């Protein structure tokens, strides 16, 4: 940690900082620059968080040297984490496509979609049973009934299931039915929920919060790993910016950035990332070209009758075309799209 | 609702939209512009959410006419909501100052702070017992012990208490100890938690999420009111922008905007809004000048030893000076700062 | 244009709006909804800009129906604009790679780079002679000397040249030396400069402003086309957001969005878009997968000695590797990378 | 400057950095932390800009210690800059109100407005003669004719004039007619224009760019001061964020932040800052409470007939009421509103 002192800091004031750092077990190096005094503090990373030196009036700024995350870091584990689910591996060579409706609406809707996306080459079925909705008057999901329908669709098609959990009291229930637990964007910093999914043995798909920095996102993953669950994958789904032609701004640079900083797999959600179905295929291809380990997309047999997110859902024919293009692209990059025709 | 169709939409396609709207019980007006066809749909506001007409390929855009919120709206209730807590009224003429440390750290710390802020003119004591922290390695709060210390401080000083609840399973516990339940910024769209605090009879301080629009924030309040708890106050605490000299960008325009659109009180938090103690007094004054019904600020007897947020905490002398200035300012605006000397 | 009136607007007030619209030559349709009155105004798009109906107290909001741009729109011209420069075509099947240093620093630097990027498959040489720099103390470019060095490099290698113009008084000079005139991000809304480059017969590379919406960007292109120069290409180079791990947030969704709304070519700049050389190759591939007509990247023979932007510059070997990967990818998409080995 | 090296950097690599820094005249301190090597470089601030050490692969990050600005800094000049214009002083005790229409539209309009705002207590007349407009089809200003009308209004009322210059070729012309040269938000980083206004002896009102950080804004002022013109005042007018209920997000925290970092005066523009006339009076008061040295607001005798920005313009009666409230508020803060009744 580097502490820059304000111009005109007195000897006595420097001494006080020195003492405070020594008290906390840090070794201190002083360095007198042309205009400012700089204090270097060396010590245990875990104690840094507790120090709030910028509260001292003669401290200009504090610059952390070490990243605040540890378990998620590639410095901690240099090889990629590969998450094995059934016969699938996420984070290795294979690219996986997770597809399905925003919400589970009915038995026929989810089964029809499951069969269609399976045929087109998806390996996972997505679908929300518990829906966090901006409005209290909007459809809130079929809840346990929805989970059962997802399980039935898995039974029928062999697709594995990814679905969101929103309530700490439901973690066990949802974990019972699903293969991957999804933490939604709005819950990325719901630390209570992170601690709870950390206690399960289910892989976790951790969506990025709409205003989360890369570091905060990695810290959210750190919560889950620190709680004992090492099977975490990141999911970039767009951030909130001033541009509102798209629903969010899909930040694909995070794909190579995460791969460089962390060993965990990275999935991309171009449906929420753009909010417009006609942009989804291009951005799915871009995600794979950027190095994503998988994509998650919304597909609905009848988007204009969807109870949520129809605007960003692909029809089955559009999804099928996209899968064919993805396969060609992935082949050129030397990665197989698992399940693709 | 207005639906704009793409250029070149056929008669048959227009007809399909017509039918879909009639099916859902809407009355339809067609209007042929110079270049585009516009469809006006009139009907029950509650059914609008379910329609996802932008999923139809020949729809260019859908423009909602009615606001999605109802109970929070000044159109629903034209007079200000005044929240009575003990002998205090929030949302009326009185301006209230809520002050205290970021976290409850110890008995002596919270009691010392409580006495000091009481003396300077605060009416509410703030302090976190459950802390949502970005890092799993950071101090997470004293939990129930912290709540008891807050209650003891109330007993001793007569200050009322505002503290955050982060876990649905703790709502009852926290409500037992506190006078105002705080929903933190990161939980503004934790709808599960909103529904739970809606079931209590405690007033709720609803912080704005760092990337929440005005409308989303009002919808979060709508969740609480829809759940039966009408005692909601908004708390502006800054949004996340590209500017990072300040921790957040304090969006004071929300104060007059909320007062124009809603009947609920508005509180401002200049501590989180700026993240720098030396900017807090100016922004507290600005908040009151903008029409805020109260402010909530961090005060610590010894900021450089605080376990969290020391950088943005006022010392007791600085807080006292600020209170004197606030009082003068509020007097000029014809509003009393309740409790001020 | 749709005008929504506030609840409680009187007959006389509605009448006033009616009159104002008639005065300006608009036909008016009134529509009485359940809660609000809606006024539809039909008429000449060019007069809309002059009306400022939201200034009327009983107007709640005004919703434009028609896009404010015309010449850049795909509704105006349905086939792609293909810009022919020498033997190259931008906006057709070919993908072009523009490469070179941030700044022209010396004869040897620009010639060495030009030969290297030509060999690796670039068709255009980029390099700044006039540099807009945040600090007045930073290197401001070699100016005309730099332009001459670029011209010499073109002579030697056959590469065409793209370089930025920052001063209206230099437009003629820069146009004399360059094949493409670049409008930098900070000048995207320097309308005076846009009008000046519109008078030249040089193709224009229009970078997106760091806080420009898609619509504002298209309107900037409209300025150039309205001034008589139809050879405009967009260049996405990232927007400013809260995320600062990357220098900007590269908004690749704009590629398919622009292709859907406009007939003009789209180039992507992953160097400024990320600000980190190690992310550039992944994002260049992603750009091509998203449908970009070309990319522009910074290459420096010795990045750690570059006078500007070394952090985001590729070395020649890294650029060469990237080109090989781009070629494979583009092949899979059925598009040739013009010039690639 | 602090340079943090990546874990695993070799002795030879450290040596290379050492040499590069020595070459450039820096003294070097090495510091071996628990996990990383840190290099401190001490030397001439003006050479720092030229070094681009982050381009070196084994450099993790570079942390500048000194601010990049100098002349604008309070470290350079500790007392406030007071700009004297006629009998007025900006930056001292007096608060100044600059008021007038967005655009000069006609002789009668500007004279009527000038008399009205003078009577209500304004000391400066604002009004645009050259208008930077998003659309090429929008009204672009009366140009020199507009400047003459402003001069006539000054003659008649005694108000001083502030107006925008957008073209380097017009700087002399505009400076001839105006008392303060305004640099508009979109031109904040038009460095060519900054250098040109630096050559005049007119005070400059430097608006903040919609996506400019505090530091970039200060650097823009540094350009003007470095060019020889020390009479610069900052003007906060809102930044672009995701919130679009307001036209911009007025970032009032910049007022105390600038006052702490710089000696230059700070003006606030609540009209562009909010884009809604009904929020303007509250935010004008908030600006003064935050410590602003003046405000600049749009006033139009007939906002619904304004050719631009009517939506955010105050009527004369609303402006007069606001002035009365401002005066009371400023009195309470011990500052006179110059010119107020």
From TrEMBL, chains A, B, C, D:
It comes from the Bacteria. InterPro entries: Aldolase_TIM, Class-I_DAHP_synthase, DAHP1/KDSA, DAHP_snth_FXD, DAHP_syn_2. Residues 89-330 form the DAHP synthetase I/KDSA domain. Its EC number is 2.5.1.54. One of its GO terms (biological process) is aromatic amino acid family biosynthetic process. Pfam families: DAHP_snth_FXD (PF18152), DAHP_synth_1 (PF00793). Coiled coil: none annotated. Keywords: Transferase. Residues 1-66 form the DAHP synthase ferredoxin-like domain. It is an enzyme of class 2 (transferase). GO terms for molecular function: 3-deoxy-7-phosphoheptulonate synthase activity; aldehyde-lyase activity. PANTHER family: PHOSPHO-2-DEHYDRO-3-DEOXYHEPTONATE ALDOLASE. This is 3-deoxy-D-arabinoheptulosonate-7-phosphate synthase. It comes from Desulfitobacterium dichloroeliminans (strain LMG P-21439 / DCA1).
